[in-house]
Specification:
The protein is α/β, with parallel strands linked by helices and about 575 residues long. Helices cover about 30% and strands about 25% of the residues. The protein has 16 helices and 25 strands. The strands form 4 sheets. The chain has an 8-stranded antiparallel beta sheet with strand order 3-2-4-1-10-9-11-15, with helices on one face. A hairpin with a 2-residue loop joins strand 9 and strand 10. The longest helix is centred in the C-terminal third of the chain and has 19 residues. The chain is globular, with a radius of gyration of 25 Å. It binds 5-amino-5-deoxy-1-O-phosphono-D-mannitol. The site of 5-amino-5-deoxy-1-O-phosphono-D-mannitol has 16 residues, from helix 8 and helix 14. The site of 5-amino-5-deoxy-1-O-phosphono-D-mannitol (M6R) has 16 residues, from helix 8 and helix 14.
């Protein structure tokens, strides 16, 4: 969940790395730092807070070999001591690290070192420094002793740089003698890049790049082309989140067009005569999976969505007649990756539904179904969510042998924001509940996640039918209930729930395309096909979260305690 960056070349590496960290900042923004060589001595600049601070501190400085890091704290508080890069106790090595060293406590006890930080990374670095051999040999030897995940760049005082990775992504590009290293292709320069596999290592000395396997043998690696969409998206509104919500219509249309003109679906290898589909994901992608499962049930499949963080330990009977779909915007989420690896180890049918070409999940799964939402930078997932639902819906049409809808339908794509007059009012409530039935319950879950994620309001989602089984006890004049109703068949039952809430002093706001809620405050949706309404109705809910976040003066793109890619378990 951190970002790492490196530069080796003739230009000012400090500027290059700070620029790279700026791009990677969405992955972690607690603290950041760089290490570089000055008169053959390793120097660091570290700071708490964003890359802006680092940029100010490093202004007018220059170095040709630089490594940098933007941190999302795991081990140890947010302070300069725990910020990366770390320097080994011999002062000969500096290192940046993404991932988690699970056995760092045992290793720490074995090392005779005065540690400066509370991090697992500093332990890994000193372990490397304690090994014998060349720098790459030291890194390989130490990597065999650590349990957990890592992507590291190690810089030695003689200017040699070594990289290594396990589970955490790491890439490099070589553009006319300038070498760029990053944990995300987005921060690389050039047209081609190398992607490291697990337990592969690289040594860079005097601009010569050598790749190694875990046995220390030199290996040959092919370069891959950097996809055109691997650029930082422009912002047309105040924040990435707002821009991304407004992109919804375009990305749905793009996904539809791409699915129509390429044989994306027919290239997917499916189990013979399968009737069962399992979807596995985390967070918002899990909500999209719940929705997808409903679409697959609709066409007669036995479908179920699982939280990846539970599925991987679960006792689900894995079977060869099931299609396992792993849904992930980033394609890097640790629990989703672990689940995919587990299913793959049984040689079963896996499909990655991701928004990131070249992602780890894509490499693990047998099949890939891309979403074409474009880069999503805001931590709160919006356009990627609607695109995931859309892709699963279109895939369900394909499985059912139906034609994909016409692009013309999108000319009237209904786009509703949340009525601004309610924003201040909702923000004043101590308790916020989202309710719905059937597909609307899934939207309620997503709305609640979005609101708590960026506004820090304690809220939760309940299936309307469950209110009377406990939660109704919490309803009083301090509670606001936002009810979603887009399905004809649940209208009447929902109205009874709303009356019960009103009778207990709770404020009710209904989000619906129906005219049946005249007795309540209402956010009116435009009418569209019912199965498509989860996309139409989640947009005002995304706006609700965004506007409340802005009302409180928070930054929606960088919510506290969170980061875009959850690469730790
Ligand atoms: O990259 P992924 O789709 O695998 O990420 C899964 C979740 O971490 C993610 O959806 C998270 O819940 C979002 N920040 C919610 O807005």
């Amino acid at each position: 969940m951190c970002g790492i960056c490196g530069y080796i070349g003739k230009n000012n590496g400090i500027d290059e790395v700070v620029q790279g960290l700026n791009i990677l900042e969405y992955r972690g923004y607690d603290s950041c730092g760089i290490a570089y060589l000055e008169n053959k001595k390793l120097k660091t600049i570290k700071t708490v807070g964003g890359v802006n601070n680092l940029s100010n501190l490093s202004k007018s400085m220059s170095a040709n070999i630089v490594i940098g890091h933007t941190r999302w704290a795991t081990h140890g508080g947010v302070n300069e001591r725990n910020a990366h890069p770390h320097i080994s106790s011999s002062k000969k090595l500096a290192m940046v690290h993404n991932g988690i060293i699970e056995n760092y406590k045992e290793l720490k006890e074995q090392l005779d070192v005065n540690f400066c930080s509370e991090t697992d990374s500093e332990v890994f670095l000193n372990l490397i420094d304690s090994e014998e051999g060349s720098l790459v040999e030291k890194v390989i030897k130490a990597s065999k002793k650590v349990q957990g995940t890592f992507a590291v760049i190690v810089l030695a005082e003689n200017g040699e740089v070594v990289l290594g990775k396990r589970e955490s992504p790491l890439y490099l590009s070589n553009m006319n003698g300038e070498i760029f290293i990053a944990s995300d292709v987005l921060a690389l320069k050039g047209e081609y890049f190398y992607s490291l596999n697990d337990d592969e290592f690289v040594s860079i000395k005097d601009f010569k790049i050598l790749f190694y396997n875990k046995n220390g043998e030199i290996i040959y690696k092919k370069q891959e082309k950097i996809e055109k969409n691997e650029v930082l998206p422009e912002i047309f509104y105040k924040t990435h989140m707002e821009s991304e919500i407004y992109e919804t219509k375009n990305v749905l249309l793009k996904t539809l067009k791409e699915y129509k003109c390429e044989d994306i679906f027919s290239n997917i290898k499916l189990p013979k005569n399968f009737r069962s589909i399992s979807l596995i994901a985390c967070g918002t992608a899990y909500h999209a999976s719940l929705m997808g499962a409903e679409y697959f049930k609709e066409i007669g499949y036995d479908a179920r969505a699982y939280l990846a963080s539970e599925f991987r330990y679960g006792r689900e009977l894995l079977n060869k007649n099931t299609l396992y779909i792993f849904v992930s915007q980033s394609g890097e989420t640790a629990d989703t990756i672990a689940s995919a690896k587990m299913v793959k180890s049984h040689k079963l049918y896996t499909l990655a539904l991701t928004n990131t070409p070249n992602s780890l999940l894509n490499r693990i799964c047998k099949n890939v179904l891309p979403t074409f939402a474009g880069r999503e930078i805001a931590v709160a997932s919006t356009k990627a969510y609607t695109c995931q639902i859309w892709s699963l819906y279109l895939f369900s049409l394909y499985l059912a042998g139906k034609k994909l809808p016409s692009e013309k339908k999108f000319a009237n794509f209904p786009f509703t924001t949340f009525d601004e007059t309610y924003i201040k009012e909702i923000a004043s409530y101590k308790k916020v509940f989202f309710i719905g039935r059937d597909l609307d319950y899934i939207t309620a879950m997503e709305a609640s996640l979005k609101l708590k994620e960026i506004s820090y309001i304690n809220c939760f989602a309940i299936a309307s039918g469950e209110l009377k089984h406990g939660t109704l006890a919490l309803i009083d004049e301090d509670a606001v209930v936002i009810a979603i109703c887009t399905q004809e068949k649940i209208k009447t039952k929902l109205i009874s729930n709303l009356e019960e809430i009103k009778a207990r002093g709770g404020k009710v706001i209904v989000v619906s395309q129906f005219d049946d809620f005249k007795d309540f405050s209402c956010v009116k949706l435009s009418k569209f096909d019912e199965l498509f309404m989860p996309i139409v109705s989640v947009i005002p809910m995304q706006f609700l979260a965004l506007r409340i976040c802005e009302f409180f003066g928070y930054n929606p793109d960088k919510p506290r305690n969170l980061a875009k890619s959850v690469t730790v378990e």
